[in-house]
Design brief:
Radius of gyration: 33 Å
Shape: globular
Structural class: alpha/beta
Helix content: 25-40%
Largest sheet: 6 strands, parallel
Amino acid sequence: MSQSFFDHPILNSPYEPPTRHHALDEDGQPLEQPPIEGRRPCDFITPVPKPKRRSSKAAQASMLFDDATGLSDDDQEYNPKPIINEIRAHVTTWRNLPNDRDWGVTPATARLLHHWRRTEVEGLRPFFCQVEAVETVIWLTEVARTQKRYAHLWKHIEGANRASSPELMRIAMKMATGAGKTTVMAMLIAWQTVNAVRSPNSSYFSRGFLIVAPGITIKDRLRVLLPDDPDSYYRNRDLVPSDMLPEIGKAKVVITNYHSFKRRETMDVSKVGKALLQGRGEAPTTIESEGQMLQRACGELMTMKNVVVINDEAHHCYEERPQGSIEELTDADSKAEAKENKEAARLWINGIKALKKKVGVRAVYDLSATPFFLAGSGYVEGTLFPWVVSDFSLMDAIECGIVKLPRVPVADNLPIADMPIYRKLWDHIGKEMPKKGAKKSEDLNPLKLPTKLLTALDALYNHYVLVHEEWKRAGIPVPPVFIVVCNNTATSKLIYEYISGWDRPNADGELVNVHRGHLELFRNYDEHGNRIARAPTLLIDSAQLESGEALDKNFRKIAEAEIEQFRRERQERTGRVENADDIDDAELLREVMNTVGQVGRLGENIRCVVSVSMLTEGWDANTVTHILGVRAFGTQLLCEQVVGRGLRRQSYELNEQGLFDVEYADVLGIPFDFTAKPVVVKPTPPKLVTRVHAVKERVAERPELEIIFPRVEGYRVDLPEERISANFTDDSRLIVDPEMIGPSRVTMSGIVGATDELAAKGVGDDRPSAVAYALAAHLLKRFGDESGDLPVHLFGQVRRIVREWLDGGYLVLKGVPMGVLDYLEIKDQAAERIFLACQRYEHGPKSIKAILDPYNPKSTTRHVNFTTSKDTYSTNHRRSHVSHVVCDSTWEAELARVLETHPRVVAYVKNQGLGLEVPYRDGAKPRRYIPDMVVRLDDGKGPDDLINLVLETKGYRKGDAQLKAETMKTLWVPGVNNLGTFGRWVFAEFCDMPLIENDFDTLVEIILAEGNANV
């Protein structure tokens, strides 16, 4: 096995298409060889053996499946690889088309794609896998549906649905846990809504959405998909351009959990009461109708037509196969679980089908890390949904650093088994575990748990202690989290008590025989036997919590102490006096579990969670470092679902290589066949996270600390109609070298014979006069008006300016011919520099004006609020509205020190999380530039007329840096100043950090002398 995989598992940026992947053997294990260039193909096979019995009805269903998708009972395997890889290849080719006019999509879709694919955005932006999932749906809907050459792809999707979901059109996206399915949902809603609003008669789009989740926890978390939610992703994560937000506001989004599709009693009447109401006649109807159920579950969507359904964790939703497979299971627990799966899937799918009958369903989008049929479906557990169209696997996610790397046992000191005992723990302890329910679990003794289980607990806990100490030394404010996943409430209660302690009442009801628990950091009792006010260990029944119904009375009794503890803790925090009966127990426990690892919330101090079921899929805790499975795992599907609870990253900051750092989750008791190599386990603590925020108390004391700035979307330049001139500077220089265009000379050689040399000459005429003519014609387009009319009468002047640029040595060719200037990208770069030089020439004080965002024309330091793991500098409360300066290098801290001690500085802020962005053009590509600092200076004109300095620090100026500086000096600063509503603005650059203090003094002196000048 290759050590390089474990030393460097992360190969790719999370924001770019993967370019390398690790080689794997047939068992999915890394090979001892360097990474392979290129993206990993979708490559997995799920076995589907032939069933023993087949009814005529089942045979007919399998024939449909065979005709539609190639999956039949006579085949031993269903291989989805070809169809997924083919779609991926088409989408890749389509994505790489340079001109959006060739994309074959609506203008609104093209605008959204440009917005999602932009690379210059600061901070967290959509991952490539998120963009690709949405691109796949867009391509299938807007491109493939309209072209005959792709008809076979839609035939496959339609056939797959005809066999498994005959009344619906479902498209599934397979995305690894932690890859951000909620963001994908928001992007799908945005794409559908904007197009539906702009093209209301289209048969492809809708602005009505039903989001269906498998439980209450995920339903609560999905509130960010509501357009009017305070934490809405559309605005807070900048998922749509600001001018499209009003259209997003027209979307109707309803979020529910599939349990709401269950038809409820309309009358709270006992069995005897029903008999009395019935009398001698027909029994009255006390169950709500299908229409009433839909009205309750779907609300305002019932007034719309043809809505879109989005299923989260969609592997719980499917049409069962006629013959079923529960009877073939031998284990009682497996049968019970399969039966629950079957009933849940039936409820979910029938609810969507009922919605289609009432209002129509335009499309169903399924998202899941494991879109496979479950036990009880009639298919062999683990069979992939045949309507899956995209795949971003767990291995892909690990190679992009999006999730933690799970570590599993690979060797132990007992040579009696082929596989380490702790890899398949249940095989060695299952027969010794209690089969009784929670009703009689109090009769069981925690000390009599199987020895192998106790040893596994001890081994994993000892490593947790090391990790806990590392986090503590690093100053992390919350502890790492250890989770135990059990098969039933009897098992969970025993393990919970063994870990955290227990007490037993005597005959008089007094609590005696208090045991503190065996794992010190997880104890819920102090040394005196008193229960700790903020106990670190929590007992949860995930299945009961997710249903949204009241807790079972037996589990409520088990968790009575936890409920009372958190009720008191909430009372202390809120100051409200509440009785135990005033709080819904399930809601309270969900709040605790949902806030595990969050500072200042009920779950802040939780270190250990003992759970029945699989904790909730979609559980957002990103501080899980250790997982112990104490249950049977029949398939890798269950393994990945449980391991997925610990795969969410703690930090999403890129390192110096532009990649994420590796994070780990250690797993015992789960036979997860992923990476397996004995390595020395060294705890790696996450970086300390600092909250950077606006301190409102500072502005209350000193209002001048608040910095208000414009949100500029573009520029309007009023050039004189008869005369154009240019003022060239060093920033007007364009350097073209082989690195920019590729090698221009290549030596060719065969095995024998003479060699030859190929030399690139460029595609255009290399005579200076011809180059000037072509470049002038291209530049003239920049001076055209919005209607596209060109000022041809200015061509002579434009050509003269181009010749001045060429003759002045501002075009520098290093080893490349002049003919390359006819390449469009090079031509755009040259035209942009000349155009900016024309703006720099003095044409009058009001010739340039900034165009502001029509919906958010200004912003302020009041809105700064984010967390970072980078080094920070605590600001002076009398000089900055914001608590810290984020130090991307030592320069920022030194510059902050200089700013805080300079007598002319009134206020300053680091432009991170602030939102000050400067639009500029890199050739033909629109981009955004984020300056480093904003400083308010007192230049003697009074506190109501301070000058605003935009400051940039550069150690080395790349080509784009000169375009950014040019835009600031020639467009942004004069454009904002000419508005007259944001005060006076100046731009300056520092390129020599060792002299920063002297340079800043000199800069201030120049500003004081010249006023509104750019330095």
